[in-house]
Design brief:
The chain is an alpha+beta fold and about 60 residues long. It is built from two helices and three strands.
């Protein structure tokens, strides 16, 4: 089993909020996001790996 990576999914429709999820690769992230938001995969504008996760401690 491959390690899961954190992804942020952005949608074409600005009314749909970006979605953060963990997946093994970008294609899996795209499919999961489409399923969770109930939209076709074509409604996804971009899939990005979240390189750094900010915490409240880092923000100060």
């Amino acid at each position: 089993m491959r390690d899961l990576l954190p992804f942020r999914i952005h949608f074409e429709d600005p009314e749909i909020a970006p979605l953060d999820l963990d997946a093994s690769d970008a294609e899996d992230a795209r499919q999961l996001a489409a399923t969770r938001r109930g939209v076709p995969a074509g409604a996804i504008r971009k899939v990005k790996i979240i390189r750094e996760i900010q915490t409240s401690e880092n923000a100060e």
